[in-house]
């Protein structure tokens, strides 16, 4: 908002660790950082410092993130400030509330810290482009030429709309001869993004001076694209809105690059399964859900009997192919379409992760009783024990499975994994191709 040489981010979170890590990441990216641990303190900090971006947690004592975002939008200078909301809640209702409160962007926890600095830089660059748009249409035209951004204009009184050539390209159209209209944009919106776009347009039509959003479109050439859109009202001398000016940018390649980085960080390169880091993040969210709903969950520690013999006899290439097939069978054996049924109608949810080598972890949620985990273990044993056809050879291998249950066998991730590992080794000592539940006697 204010003129300064270094952009400033206001970080709002009641978790001091989140604030500390965010400060470290953003300062290394060249941002000034101020922080607040409560919603009311955040509003005061906004008025005192005039930050360029607000990074805002949803769940906080006192004013929550939704209320803070609404309050900021009502302050002088807060109408167009980028507000990026952070939350571990990925349900549609929370997303809808965030955008209706005025959020610019939505980041799910756990935060991908490796990407946060890039995201803030991107948001800040977009904010600068938006500010330049208000100052000069000529500068916008130059930005279009350099960045491939398409501009558009909407006459408020007549409803007539004009697009630049880049907008027609993004929407898979041949050119101005096909006509320009908001209806085309609305028709091309990805079904999953219509709620947030409709909410953003509702705010603009209700009197907000600006709009900034990221969404997906399916254009006239049936291409699914990620786009970033900005809009700003132009008013006459009496303050009446007369024209809506904006731009749209195809950011598909940027999103693909971000997804590639995310996959490298969170997924196993050999099997494509979630890796240890992903399991850690997913488990922390799962155990929070289990505490909230008073449900059980289970960790199944899966190890292959005498896998080293496969590598020694046939080579690592065959061993790698076998691990990929094991990963596919594991995923298939816990697929959500084949869950243990129960009267409540709530299904068991499972996720497979590769821990290391021939070790895998299976996380099961929404268990009603211990035997639910046993049924899944039996299905895994049957799936993995069937013969494999690898490189023209028929190979056989069997698994051992150790099971630990929350909350009976531990309340923390490390304890539950260790106990499942202990139970797995007891199953291996008993001859393999079996599963065993953890008990205190095993220790």
Structural class label: alpha/beta
| Percent in strands | 15-25%
- Terminus-to-terminus distance: 60 Å
Q: Count of helices?
A: 15
CATH superfamily of the largest domain, called what? Reverse transcriptase/Diguanylate cyclase domain
The name of the CATH topology of the largest domain is Alpha-Beta Plaits
Please report the first level of CATH classification, the CATH class of the largest domain: Alpha Beta
Strand order of the main beta sheet, please?
2-1-3-4-5
Radius of gyration: 26 Å
Major sheet: size, sense and barrel closure? Answer: 5 strands, parallel
Q: How many domain regions?
A: 3
Helix content: 40-55%
Mean pLDDT: 85
User: What is the global morphology?
Assistant: elongated
Contiguous low-pLDDT stretches (5 residues minimum) are 336-345
Q: Give the strand tally.
A: 17
- CATH architecture heading of the largest domain: 2-Layer Sandwich
Characteristic terms for this protein:
Rossmann fold, elongated, 3 domains, Alpha-Beta Plaits, alpha/beta, 443 residues, Beta-Lactamase, 44% helix, five-stranded parallel sheet
List strands and helices in order, with pairings.
Layout: E1 8-12, H1 16-28, E2 32-36, H2 39-49, E3 53-57, H3 65-73, E4 83-87, H4 92-101, E5 105-108, H5 113-135, H6 137-147, E6 149-155, E7 161-163, H7 165-170, H8 182-188, H9 194-205, E8 210-218, E9 224-235, E10 241-250, H10 252-266, H11 276-293, E11 296-304, H12 307-314, H13 316-333, E12 349-356, E13 359-367, H14 370-385, E14 388-390, E15 393-395, E16 399-406, H15 413-429, E17 434-437
Parallel strand pairs: 1-2, 1-3, 3-4, 4-5, 16-17
Antiparallel strand pairs: 6-7, 6-10, 8-9, 9-10, 11-13, 11-16, 12-13, 14-15
């Amino acid at each position: 908002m204010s003129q300064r040489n270094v952009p400033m981010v206001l970080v709002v979170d009641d978790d001091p660790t989140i604030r500390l890590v965010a400060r470290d990441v953003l300062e290394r990216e060249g941002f000034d950082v101020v922080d607040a641990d409560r919603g009311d303190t955040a509003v005061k900090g906004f008025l005192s410092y005039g930050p360029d971006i607000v990074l805002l947690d949803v769940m906080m004592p006192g004013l929550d993130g939704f209320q803070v975002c609404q309050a900021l939008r009502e302050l002088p200078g807060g109408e167009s400030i980028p507000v990026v909301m952070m939350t571990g809640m990925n349900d549609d209702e929370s997303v809808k509330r965030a955008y209706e409160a005025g959020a610019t962007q939505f980041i799910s926890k756990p935060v991908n810290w490796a990407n946060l600095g890039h995201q803030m830089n991107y948001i800040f660059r977009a904010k600068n482009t938006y500010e330049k748009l208000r100052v000069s249409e000529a500068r916008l035209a130059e930005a279009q030429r350099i960045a491939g951004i398409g501009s558009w204009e909407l006459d408020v009184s007549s409803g007539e709309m004009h697009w630049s050539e880049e907008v027609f390209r993004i929407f898979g159209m041949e050119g101005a001869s096909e006509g320009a209209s908001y209806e085309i944009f609305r028709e091309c919106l990805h079904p999953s993004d219509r709620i947030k776009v409709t909410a953003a347009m509702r705010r603009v039509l209700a009197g907000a001076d600006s709009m900034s959003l990221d969404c997906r479109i399916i254009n006239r050439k049936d291409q699914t694209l990620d786009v970033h859109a900005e809009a700003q009202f132009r008013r006459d001398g009496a303050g009446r809105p007369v024209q809506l000016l904006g731009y749209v940018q195809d950011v598909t390649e940027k999103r693909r690059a971000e997804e590639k980085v995310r996959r490298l960080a969170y997924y196993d390169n050999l099997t494509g399964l979630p890796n240890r880091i992903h399991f850690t993040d997913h488990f922390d969210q799962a155990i929070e859900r289990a505490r909230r709903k008073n449900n059980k969950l289970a960790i199944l520690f899966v190890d292959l009997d005498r896998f080293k013999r496969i590598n020694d006899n046939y080579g690592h290439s065959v061993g790698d192919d076998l691990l990929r097939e094991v990963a596919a069978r594991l995923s298939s054996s816990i697929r959500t379409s084949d869950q243990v049924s129960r009267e409540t109608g709530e299904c068991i949810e499972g996720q497979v992760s590769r821990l290391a080598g021939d070790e895998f972890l299976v996380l099961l949620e929404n268990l009603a009783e211990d035997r639910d985990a046993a049924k899944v273990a039996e299905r895994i044993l049957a799936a993995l024990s069937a013969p494999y056809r690898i490189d023209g050879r028929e190979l056989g291998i069997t698994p051992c499975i150790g099971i630990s249950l929350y909350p009976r066998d531990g309340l923390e991730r490390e304890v539950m994994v260790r106990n499942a590992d202990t139970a797995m080794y007891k199953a291996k000592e008993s001859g393999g191709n079996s599963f065993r539940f953890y008990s205190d006697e095993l220790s």
